[in-house]
Specification:
Elements lengths: L2 H5 L2 E3 L5 E3 H5 L16 H7 L1 E8 L2 E8 L4 H8 L18 E4 L2 E4 L12 E3 L12 H8 L9 H17 L7 H7 L11 H13 L2
Parallel strand pairs: 3-7
Antiparallel strand pairs: 1-2, 3-4, 5-6, 5-7
Amino acid sequence: MPLADACSLRQTDFQGGPVDARRLALGQTLVGWEIGPPILPLFLVWRIFMSTVSMTVNGKSVECEVEDRTLLVEFLREHLNLTGTHVGCDTSQCGACVVHVDGKAVKSCTMLAAQASGSDVTTIEGLAKGDKLHPMQQAFKENHGLQCGFCTPGMIMTAVDMVNRHKANGGGKLSEEKIRAELEGNICRCTGYHNIVRSIEAGAKGMR
């Protein structure tokens, strides 16, 4: 079958009548007759469950066709090659995949790319302004707030959101206790968090 015909999502059943492709993928004709295992070419079945997503990522407009099941973290890493957003646990516990969606911290492994369509997304790659690091990035560098560095992008994105929310609520100085409580959703397996907390305290001062 020509590709053009396949993309029209139509196919012909054994009697020569038109059959809806989605039904064929499920092994049924339009009138409900069972016809056994799926008979569509795999590429056609794949196209049935595709969506076009568009969003602004780090200030640039992007548009791409992806599978409906594509997670935002997969979209960023595999389609846009923004690999600073990490996948560390597959259970939404570690926080290595945190990005900002419309200004709020989100674990991108818990959100579909389609759900972020139309949103403004910022990843760790979008924080710096050219060669000038964001104050929180600079603070992590100066206070050695990392060891292996795998959790660091998520830590920094969480920290920036933390400080922004604290400032928006008219808060004063971020206490160590508050910072540690806010980091509950981010796991570091190396540092013991001491330098991370110190980095966030310094970064908060730089963001004033």
